[in-house]
Amino acid sequence: MIRLESKGEPSRLFSYLSPVLAMVLTVGTGALLFELMGKPAGPSLYAYFIQPFTTLYGASELGVKATPLILIGLGLSVGFRANVWNIGAEGQLTLGAIAGGALALAFYEVETPLLLPAMMIAGVLGGMAWAAIPAFLRVKFNANEILVSLMLTYVALLLLSYLVHGPLRDPDGFNFPESRLFHDSATMPTLISGTRLHWGAVLAVLAAGAIWLMLSRSMLGFQLKILGDAPRAARFAGYREPKLVWFSLLLSGGLAGLAGALEVSGTVGQLIPTISPGYGFTAIIVAFLGRLHPVGVVIGGLTMALTYIGGETAQIEIGLPAAVTGLFQGVLLFYLLACDVLINYRLRFGRRLAIG
Amino acid sequence: MNDNHNDPSTPLLELRGIRKAFPGVVANDDVSLSIKHSEIHALLGENGAGKSTLVKIIYGVLRPDQGDLLWQGKPVDLAGPSAARDLGIGMVFQHFSLFEALSVAENIELALPSKGEGGFDRAELPDRISEVSAQYGLPLDPRRTVLDLSVGERQRIEIVRCLLQDPKLLIMDEPTSVLTPQEVGRLFETLRRLASEGCAILYISHKLQEIRDLCETATILRGGKVVATCDPRQQSVQSLANMMIGETPLKPERPAGRVLEKSNRLEVRGLSLPAQKAFGTALKDISFSVRGGEVLGLAGVAGNGQPELMTALIGEVLTYPEAVRIDGQPVGRLGPRRRREAGACFVPEERNGHATAPDMPLADNGLLSADRRMGLTRGGWILSRARDRFAGEVIQRFSVKASGIGAAAKSLSGGNLQKFSVGREIAQNPGVLVINQPTWGVDAGSAAAIQEAILALAAEGAAVVVISQDLDELFAIADRIAVMSEGKLSRPKPIGEVTIEEIGLLMGGIQGEKTGATV
């Protein structure tokens, strides 16, 4: 019989060890799964986890995928600390992509260095606007932001679909649901030539630094942490919950919107019906994998990026289905939540001693 | 009561060498005690002495790591509370678990085993309740809704529920902490009658006078160990206190020659507030004022509007500007931070989660309420050195036992966390201090230190409001006293002009009349 016994105090060691343990278990489960599907585990795991690093292009793709995950994960982790559960980052990303992309198309013929920054700002504002809806409804009517933000994601995806099928469709595009390809002045320059790694990666690292400073040194970050840890103590201190809810949602929405604008200008280069392979949802795992800490989010973002790239490689090399990416992500979150139990509890084997 | 093993020489219940450890603390260490038939046995000790753990072991909630339980001379292994109930052990908890929307009979029915398992027929239950309540002088109408009942009446429900199962041992956990002095008197009569009919009572308390009045034997716990077993009637309050605490005097030193200032530093005028949540208490036209140098005590039974008044004074709930004035400035519409800037500091009742964030280190908890008054931030950034220095000062000045400023608030014992919460506010040298239950659940040594710090602050010219259920405490430190009852406040009277009985009647207030109607 296995029992859980309270440790009394949460273990700091296990709060760092738990993500590592979860990853080891995920790889183990993956190996088992590959074997069951009749694929040799060794080469499959190699294709999934190692092969992407064997070329510069593969390694740079890690940064490409990690950039939106880190940006969004940073914003979400701030909100999660304050008990503000923005689950709709995917929708905010989409709105950011629409806002940034629409700007690029509106100034299609204009060549100016101001266009890219303007697109980024438009992306941020688009994401914020989408996040403002759950913020307003929660503050004003105490509506659950989890449901509101999640459902708005589908609205955003349909809005994008409408736009690329209609008003923003490429006039010379043979009726394909795509916008025109952005001009050079609307395309984010790459960091390394021959790869798709663009300047958005630098923005993500800078954002991580800024969020770290905000959480560890500013009164605002302190208030967010108190609101999440002890809401009554926050009221006692006199922190204004509505203000903090607004801030959390606007920050995470803005960062998701920025990620969306970066995707269309840096990676995709046009508006298409599907801009993100679920970055907004995967970033939720990134935030928890990174222990809601900015540095952890960077590591978590790189890890989850690998599941995307590995999934693609595994499709090509071994002929595994595309669903394997989602499967790995789900299994990882599952193990992470299970391993997190060890932060507060230890396992005891055997029966409890009877007295009397 | 059924009697198969009623040989009076065998103790009803005997504990031998009970030991129970939790991670980080040994709650009970080699505890032995024996309860005779028909005996009222006191279990005396400060908060944290291990009383609750021991009681949970007796009631089958916890299992001891070592040691034996003997019931009527035979070793038993209690697998759970139901096993304890089967033996004939009943327990009345300090905090009742009653459904307020249900009737008395329905609540009792829910707690009893169903008919097939030796319970009662639903139709007979109201009659049985009336029968038992009449027999033991516990007036209770089985048809009334719990919501309408006073705390004393609710306690009777729990007692009657136990009595319906013919207990041989009744455990009472701090039963008087929620009662008026008059209700306490009535409860004692009931308990004595029960004992005279053969039911032993294990009475848990840290109120010494009560134990001297009621109990024949007392087992005194300190730090998880039995330090003495005695007849409390042969002891003085002081000698019992010495055994319980070990050192320190009980009464705080009152600084001599206090001068009251002429002007009111805190003024509350016509404060009314609708109940904030279901079953909360509405505040009705509360008015009082406190001068500099003065301590005003607000007595009252729990649940009569104390937490509501506290949140209105802190500014967690806003009223209209003139309802609260600090040094003449109307602050009724200002939040807590602006009220602190105006000169007031507050210590709410619940120290874990309200006064402090439990998982945060003490340094951050200092920042929680002192950031503005102590200048711990600049331009929105935390000055970490000033923050650490402030928390360190509070720890040192108020002798808070903690591993340092990095210790999480919840790692501190109740008394030490309370010393930190009170110390954090006093260290800000406020002009007005409002404290709710300053020494609730705090060991006597810390309680005396807190009371002295309050008096010292008043001596420096601050106006202090102490909300407390502990009348002894209020009589020890307050200059004037008023009573809260059903959201209303009586007119404050100087401490020299009132008696405990008078206060007790006010505490019963309207509730007393209501109860009277059903007797």
TrEMBL record, chain A:
The keyword Transmembrane helix applies. Coiled coil: none annotated. It is a multi-pass membrane protein. The chain crosses the membrane at residues 12-34, 62-80, 92-108, 114-137, 146-164, 197-215, 244-262, 268-288, 295-311, 323-343. InterPro entries: ABC_transp_permease. Keywords: Cell membrane, Membrane, Transmembrane, Transmembrane helix. One of its GO terms (molecular function) is transmembrane transporter activity. Pfam families: BPD_transp_2. It is found in: Cell membrane. One of its GO terms (cellular component) is plasma membrane. This is ABC transporter permease.
